[in-house]
Amino acid sequence: MTSGNAGQSLFAGKSKLLAVIGDEDTVTGFLLGGIGEHSAKTRKPNFLIVDKTTKLTDIEETFKSFLTREDIGIILISQFIAEQIRGLVDGHDKSVPAILEIPSKEHPYDASKDSILRRARGMFSADDFK
């Protein structure tokens, strides 16, 4: 994807991180894949492990902080957690960081709940695919 200037990257040549919010198994899998980082400025991690003791306010604050971090390009969030903060997820209307809802071990993916797919359905009609 390019912006107004031909050949200029969406990220203006700067690399971006993935951020992950999910259960322990999901986040651990991504960390083992090498996505774990700490912000150079704040020393805060780019992930949050959510369990039954995690407060909703902690999830909301972490999500909001990921939205404002310049070093994050994509936020991966387990769909069952996205449901808990649906207002915040649906309220995000910028392309960066992109928010992708993913399944988890205990909670299968439900396309009808995915905010991106719901928006995409509203952009097209059945006639567009004929």
TrEMBL record:
Subunit structure: V-ATPase is a heteromultimeric enzyme made up of two complexes: the ATP-hydrolytic V1 complex and the proton translocation V0 complex.
Keyword Transport tagged: yes
GO cellular component, one term: proton-transporting V-type ATPase, V1 domain
Positions of transmembrane segments: none
GO terms assigned for molecular function: proton-transporting ATPase activity, rotational mechanism
Name the record gives this protein: V-type proton ATPase subunit F
Function: Subunit of the V1 complex of vacuolar(H+)-ATPase (V-ATPase), a multisubunit enzyme composed of a peripheral complex (V1) that hydrolyzes ATP and a membrane integral complex (V0) that translocates protons. V-ATPase is responsible for acidifying and maintaining the pH of intracellular compartments.
Stated family: Belongs to the V-ATPase F subunit family.
Keywords linked to the UniProt accession: Hydrogen ion transport, Ion transport, Transport
Keyword hit for Ion transport: yes
